[in-house]
Amino acid sequence: FDGTGGRFGDTAVAAASSDPAIATVYASVDAASDEPLVLVAINKSTGTTTAEILVTHTRALAQGETWRIDASSATPRPGPALQATARNTFRLEMPGSSVTTVRLTP
Fold first, then answer.
1. 8 Å CB contact between 66 and 101
2. CB 68 within 8 A of CB 80
3. Beta-strand relationship, 98-105 and 63-70
């Protein structure tokens, strides 16, 4: 997803968005390594959506790097950096009909 071998992990992590009917999220870690948590957020709306995302994990996650695909490009490109708004909680603005991949770190 990031052009350097980033991938979705093999172990699911609980994650939820403030509006799951419009913004669906999935999270994972790689059980065999200490890689960052990876989150995929899908904006099913045709308009821009801002979602509060809560990740349930024992590690405190404080920041994230984002990559996006949307109607203008099927090639992932870097998006805005994220900062936690509370413990393991992030506010993510997503363009309409887009998929955002986030690498979350402490």
1. yes
2. no
3. antiparallel
Which residue reads 């009909």 in tokens? Answer: 97
- DSSP, collapsed to helix, strand or coil, labels residue 20 as coil
Give the separation between CA 78 and CA 100, rounded to whole angstroms: 9
For residue 87, which phi and psi values (nearest 5 degrees)? -55, 120
Supply the pTM of this predicted model. 0.91
Terminal-residue alpha carbon distance, the chain: 20
CA distances from 17 to 22, 30, 35 (A): 9, 22, 23
Rounded Cα distance between 2 and 87, Å, is 25
Residue by residue, pLDDT tens for the chain (106 residues) are 776 777 788 999 999 999 999 999 999 999 888 788 999 999 999 999 999 999 999 999 999 999 999 999 989 999 999 999 999 999 999 999 999 999 999 9
